[in-house]
Design goal:
Blueprint (H helix, E strand, L loop, with lengths): L3 H21 L4 E3 L7 E4 L2 E9 L2 E7 L2 H8 L4 E3 L8 E5 L5 H15 L11
Antiparallel strand pairs: 1-2, 2-3, 3-4, 4-6, 5-6
Length: 123
């Protein structure tokens, strides 16, 4: 018997497989859980999390402040919980445009990746 929970689990697994593929193409990314959820990190900071908030499975990402309102106009996006600085959004798992999501994941990665310190040479 197929239950709503098993459908949700299957959908999460499909989304997680896509997230893994996208994030694997980015340099120095590691997958490490964040509060029990699959998370992809650039350095120590997660930039993508497969999350669940108020019974809604979603993808947590950081977004450029200039795009925030534009994305929130789409019902698939909502303000990320636990984000007092308003730098992140969540995207529901329904009808994901994977080209758009790949671009947003790349943007999220660029916003949180560590800046490598340049070594200064003494002359």
């Amino acid at each position: 018997m197929v239950t709503a929970k098993s459908k949700t689990s299957a959908a999460r697994e499909r989304v997680l497989a896509r997230l893994r593929k996208i994030c694997a193409a980015l340099p120095d990314v590691v997958e490490k859980p964040s509060f029990g959820n699959p998370a992809f990190r650039a350095g120590t900071r997660p930039f993508v999390v497969l999350d669940r908030y108020k019974r809604t499975d979603c993808i947590f990402i950081y977004v450029d402040p200039g795009r925030r309102e534009e994305l929130l106009a789409n019902d698939a996006f909502f303000k990320a919980p636990y984000d007092p600085r308003e730098k992140a959004l969540c995207r529901t798992l329904e009808k994901i445009d994977w080209r758009e999501m790949q671009a947003l994941i790349g943007e999220s990665y660029r916003l949180v990746r560590p800046v490598k310190k340049r070594l200064r040479t003494m002359s």
